[in-house]
Amino acid sequence: MSHFAPQRAWLFSLIALLLPAGAAVAQGREDARLVVATQVLEELHAVPDQNVPTWLMDRAYGVAVIPDVVKLGFIFGGRHGNGVLVSRDATGRFSNPVFISLTGGSVGWQIGAQSADVVLIFATRRSLENFSRGQFTLGVSASVAAGPVGRSGEAAAGVNAEIYSYSRARGLFAGVALDGTGILFDRKANQAFYGHDVTADDIFLGTVTTGAESARRFIAAIVAGLSPAGATASGKETNPPPVASPAPAAAPAPASEGARSFPLADPKPGGEPH
User: Fold this and answer.
1) Which of the residues 47, 85, 114, 176 could staple to 167 if both were Cys, CB 3.0 to 4.6 A apart?
2) How far is CA 225 from the centre of its chain?
3) What does the pLDDT profile of the chain (274 residues) look like in tens digits?
């Protein structure tokens, strides 16, 4: 099991104790999930040579963090974890968090249990749209490849993948193959956090919003992994609340006006720029 698991179990318990009784029931678990996902990102930022490359983060249409994914196996194996996902609109703003679950299985000789943190980088808009439509399977609903690692890492394969996947176990961060793994919209968690039944599109488009500090900190941790230009486009300089706005229907402003749009349009999403 991951050596981070005992610390995170303590963190979940502490958050539940600090919240008022009513809030702990309605929102405590979701706040704790955001806090732990933020911790994962902050720990990765502390080791740039083992982090998601900045150039890939700048081109991300969405970022998902699923801490402590448990993988169990005895001939038939499986993995499961709960996390959060945010999308990015044409202006560079990140949405409020969508709560998700990750689950998958495998067949083959295996035994034991392992816990790992999983990070997914959505390199195309289509991959997020497919997720919003319902059940989503990596490698089926969108192509997936093990992501490059480090300041200037290059994807050895799957340059045109729609999603890049990463895993950290026992302190090591690396790309990982997750074909066949499902990503599900966690309806119960989203309802508890936002106070009523919502859809992924409601959250991505900013129809529903939150002022929760846990959500703001999670967005800030994602922005911290961008380049200075990408961070500016995401509104870091004004420290706005994590509220998304629908992508503008109008054509982009002329280049002479200094307008910039992130994530960058890329004929080979996820590929390192030259």
Assistant:
1) 176
2) 12
3) 445 555 555 454 454 455 454 444 456 899 999 999 999 999 999 888 888 999 999 999 999 999 988 876 555 567 889 999 999 998 899 999 999 999 886 555 445 567 889 999 999 999 999 999 987 999 999 999 988 887 655 544 445 789 999 998 877 888 888 888 999 999 999 999 999 999 999 999 999 999 999 999 999 999 999 988 877 766 543 333 333 333 333 343 333 333 333 565 554 544 555 4
**pTM (2 decimals)?**
0.76
Can you tell me which residue has the tokens 């890329």?
Answer: 266
Q: Report DSSP letters for the chain, one per residue.
A: --TTHHHHHHHHHHHHHHS-HHHIIIIIHHHHHHHHHHHHHHHHHT-GGGS--HHHHHT-SEEEEEEEEEEEEEEEEEEEEEEEEEEB-TTSPBPPPEEEEEEEEEEEEEEEEEEEEEEEEE-SHHHHHHHHHS-EEBTTTB-EEEPP-SSS---SS-TT-SEEEEEEETTEEEE---TT-EEEE-HHHHHHHHSS---HHHHHTTSS----HHHHHHHHHHHTTS-HHHHHHTTGGG---S---PPPSSPPPPGGGT---SSPP-SSTTPPP-
**Burial letters for 142-163: b for 16+ Cβ neighbours within 10 Å, e otherwise?**
bbbbbbbbeeebebeebeebbb
Rounded (10°) CA dihedral 31, 33, 39, 40: -160
Give buried/exposed letters for 218-233 (b at 16+ CB in 10 A, else e). Answer: bbbbbbebbeeebbbb
Using an 8 Å Cβ cutoff, are 103 and 78 in contact?
A: yes
Angle between helix axes 29-45 and 5-18 (nearest 10 degrees) is 140
